[in-house]
Write a structure and sequence with these properties.
Length: 166
Amino acid sequence: MEQTLVIFKPDAVMRGIVGEVLSRFEKAGFKMIGIKMMSPDHKHYYHHYETIGTLKTRKGDSIFERQLSNMLVGPVIAVVLEGVEAIETIRKMVGPTEPKSAPPGTIRGDYAHMSYSQADSSGGSISNVLHASASANEAKREIAHWFNDNEMFEYETVHEKFTQPK
């Protein structure tokens, strides 16, 4: 089974849509094996977005700092989800980074509408509800950054009875 990290960003937490969105992952058969609410500091986000995600390297200082400022406005909920091809499937469920480009039916398409141009004109960042790991390597590094081993749980779900080989 593949594991991935999903972070409910401050806009999702403050809007009160975490349960509604999380249920979409559960209904698709993904299992929560770790979950916690926290308010990480700048250093934690720097490691997440640059050391692991190379956002600053790829997009520049301005976008990087705007993203970190956006993440620091409130608490987040970090979740480790597990399931068959979890990374790719969850990224499809979440939709493109720019909510305006996300089709209806995706989480960003259903719960956000901001565009890059709107963020640029306001000097802000994209409020797009979630972060989801982009690759297996990124997921492994992100999970290790956000969770200790004793914060992860193993148990069997009904879905696993139908998705795991006998």
